[in-house]
Amino acid sequence: MKILVDAMGGDNAPLCVLQGAAQAKAEFGDGMELVLLGDQPAMESCAAKNNIDLSQFTVIPCTENITMEDDPVKAVRHKTDSGMVKALTMLKNGEADAFVSAGSTGALHVGTSLIVRTVKGVKRPALATPMPGAKQNFLLLDCGANVECRPEMLNAFGTMGSVYAEKVMGRTQPKVALVNNGAEETKGTPTYRDAHMLLKVNPSIRFVGNIEPRYIMDGDVDVVVCDGFVGNVVLKLTEGVAKTLLGMLKKIFLKNLLTKLSYLGIKGGLGELKRMLDSEEVGGAPLLGAAKPVIKAHGSSHAKGIKNAIRQAKLCVENDLCGTMQSALAEVAKSTQ
Where in the sequence is the domain holding 72, given as residue range(s)? Predict the structure, then answer.
């Protein structure tokens, strides 16, 4: 198995990318070749300063790099010697099995759509993020790749999310819900009402209806479907609330000696809560619908986040995620004819 890694992508590249790749290689690297693409002199210098053995990786030098400030379309078309474009081209040509990047989300989405392409039945890939829930984690998609969606796209997201939940998250008959401002079928905009009707008759999923935002974090469903605008708001609001609540709890327990002693009794539980809310435990969000596995790691990822993004890529390849998704979408298309 060959997994490509964008060595220069993200706020903490190349150090955290190299560290995460080394951890992935050590932890689950049997039969896995990791290929790092990027500025070779920068990688070599960083590796030497931080005692990282570059010889355990294949290094492909690149003279360009796509930054967060670049226009996504222009960058993909003109920065052809960047690690991202080179990796996506290799993936398209069958020279690798998956790609991981913490770089520009916009460029990765555009590049995946234009170069790797999508499976039949998918117009544009969706960014799917595993999220923490009270009972279990769940998959939220789209999280920002497609701000506006047609009903057919939301229906496809339901199918793709269900396949991912089953193949990668290990869920049996995963429950799929549609984000809305009410549980009734008549709630929401025309797009969401039409999407509800399509999801309701989708033979490839177990659709349980609309879900109001206040119930999303309960973890009663496995897949939560919405357009990229709503999903990005849900994602960032959840991250903000989690950070705020943990900060408030810390202030409460540091208030006086008695509260500090009380903290000792629940220290383990709070540590587990913090771990659950840590986005780096998941590592990355797959671009579901791409013809080959493409994983988007968080732009601020540290070594643990990169390691777990590589783990996700490995799971996608091992479970033939893209092939299974194509079969499921074909079944949906057949049922609508």
Answer: 1-125+289-337
Q: What angle do CA 327, 330, 336 make, to 5 degrees?
A: 150
Same domain, 235 and 261: yes
DSSP for 145-211 reads S-SS--HHHHHHHHHHHHHHHHHTS--SS-EEEEE-SSSSTT-S-HHHHHHHHHHHT-TTSEEEEEE
pLDDT at 280: 65
The model's pTM: 0.84
**What's the per-residue H, E or C state across 99-116?**
EEECCCHHHHHHHHHHHH
Tokens 């210098």 correspond to what residue? 45
Sign of CA dihedral 28, 31, 112, 68: positive
What gap in Å lies between CA 177 and CA 226, rounded to an integer? 9
The amino acid at 117: R
Q: Final residue of a domain: which of 233, 258, 279?
A: 279
Domain contains 284: no
329 and 272 housed in the same domain: no
Residues 95, 224 within the same domain:
no
Predicted local distance difference test score (pLDDT) of residue 85: 96
Residue 233 lies in a domain: yes
Task: List, for residues 264-295, the tens digit of each pLDDT value.
Answer: 777 776 666 666 666 666 678 889 989 999 99
